[in-house]
Amino acid sequence: MKGWTGQLLRVNLSNKDVTTEKYPKEFALQFVGGRGFAAKILWDEVPKGTNPLSPGNKFIAAVGPLSGLAMPNVGKVVVAAKSPLTGGYGDGNLGSHFGSQLRRAGYDVLVVEGKAETPSYVLIQDSEVNVLEADHLWGKGAFEAEQKLEETHGKSIGTLMIGQGGEHLVKYATVRSMMGRSGGRPGMGAVMGSKNLKALVAKGSSTPELASPEAFRQLGRDGFKDIREKPGYDEWMTQGTMLIHAWCQEYSVLPSYNFREGQFEHAEALSGGTMEKLKEKTRGCPSCTMQCGHCIKDSEGLSAELDYENVALLGSNIGMRDLREVATLNRLADEYGLDTISLGNTIGFAMEASEKGILDEKLDWGDFHATRKLITDIAFRADNLGNMLADGTQIMAKQLGKSTQNFAMQIKGLEISGYDCHAAPGMALAFGVCSIGAHHKESWVITHEVDVGRETYDESKVDKIIELQRIRGGLFEQLVGCRFPWIEVGFDLEWYPKYFAAATGLKWTLDDFWVLSDRIYSLVRSYWVREFDGEWDRSMDYPPARWFTEPLSVGPLSGTKLEKEGYEKLLSWYYQKRGWDERGIPTKKRLKEQDLEWIIPELEKVTKLS
Ligand code: PTT
Ligand code: SF4
Q1: I want to staple 92 with a disulfide (CB 3.0 to 4.6 A). Which of 183, 269, 341, 460 is the partner?
Q2: What domains, with CATH codes, occur in the chain?
Q3: Which pTM was predicted?
Q4: Atom of ligand 2 nearest to the CA of 284
């Protein structure tokens, strides 16, 4: 089998057993890599009802057949597990040398199971794999821990690690790499922490065998050149994802004051233009020609990275007005390994609850010093409020009661990323049906909504969501490449089947990738349904009440809110087009068509299938 290594590495931390497994060809053909591999393994190996923070959960790092090869933007790795934040399927896709080194060591997937007795890290050097003690790393932030590992093992290693947030089982702790990359929003870092696993280190010495190495080399060179020559390339390099900040303000989707509003009165101070003036350097993932991590000196004089999501959630969403202070909050989140999106949401939620007198603690909008302290308290679960926020908004709202659920801005337990949807019903649905909870990674349809009408409940919005899910949530998550070359500078999707053919020898078309993608969507959806024990219904795909009940009160779209009837219509179309029933559960017919017949008996144990 060319392209893939054909091997899975399994490390059991409880007894330090290490096994190498040759996986069947069908596994590669049916699931390809990344999210596909992870979803299949989690379905098979993590029984329904497993506590996500128990030794029974499995931490998976998976790459695809293009990972680490000489082509643009494939220096990423998917990290996945049952999520402690949502109780459902969780994953993230982060830049790291770990993926390419894992492949060079001879594996496409790593499965970590059990729990180490004491703080540990795993060192993978080709077939030599050891569980080592990590007392000297435990308690350290992600930056320092990574530095120490490089001092011990050299700079050419690939690492995945956690900060103190993961150690203290903060439910939205992420996995960190390369000082700046962060992934696995739904608590993949907490899963590592629950296993006493501080870090994973890989270093390999072989290269995967390709079907047409010379053709691949040429395609790789051509791809890099094509990206650099794209008309949008120079503009992208100025601000990266921060380019969208001003646009979001203009179109009233910039989350402000815990998603009460879509515009912020101090937006300019936090904009991409402001960042550009302060920019000191750029950083990013391996094999990237268009690095998007822009760094400025923060309010404490240290270098900190800013991305749009971070600035939206740790900026306007909590009333901050100074970009350098936002950068400091962002740097702390990076050091502790906390997801900035969930962090900004939980803090915004707490600020609103404090304002309404529901929380005893006083926490004002835009109070930098209190927020700075609170982030440390969350990472260490240091006091009552920090401990409460460390569990995320859904649990916190359940504890506080008093209708706080209405302004707990989450779906399926995952906090909403940086786009307010009072006036974007299609985007609200995109959040509602995302595979991991409310994340924008799979479909982002606001520009389409601007074209066809912001407040309409138009069938084309559903078609757009599925089209984008197939590309963003499918192609890029299975091949494990960055989607930005395609989205941001227009790198043609047709490059990917060519790379795939040169690596594997398989002549797949993009349509073949859509079939694959739809299969993984049904599998992931089935995973959720199985976990929620037959209680699953369409309310799981619903955005928070705030967007339906409290209209925007500032900006040109003032007075706008979502309509329940319209949302219901969009949801029904979505289910029909996916071949799922009115509860959002795949039908037997659909599962059979998608070669997922084998999951039917298990699914039927929890619910009656249509
Ligand atoms: C992603 C999520 C995002 S999405 C952002 S900013 W974005 C936040 N970044 C964080 C951060 O930084 N520090 C931190 N402590 N927490 C953070 N949480 C948030 O995490 C990221 C880029 C970005 S930047 C995006 S959109 C794209 N996402 C991709 C994706 O999901 N799939 C894919 N195939 N390609 C993608 N390319 C882009 O990658 P999660 P990264 Mg990320 C400082 O992982 O779990 O999806 O969370 O991994 O290497 O940092 O790249 O405006
Ligand atoms: Fe990483 Fe950004 Fe480059 Fe994508 S564009 S590979 S996220 S640095």
Answers
A1: 183
A2: 7-203 (3.60.9.10), 239-418 (1.10.569.10), 420-490+509-610 (1.10.599.10)
A3: 0.98
A4: 8
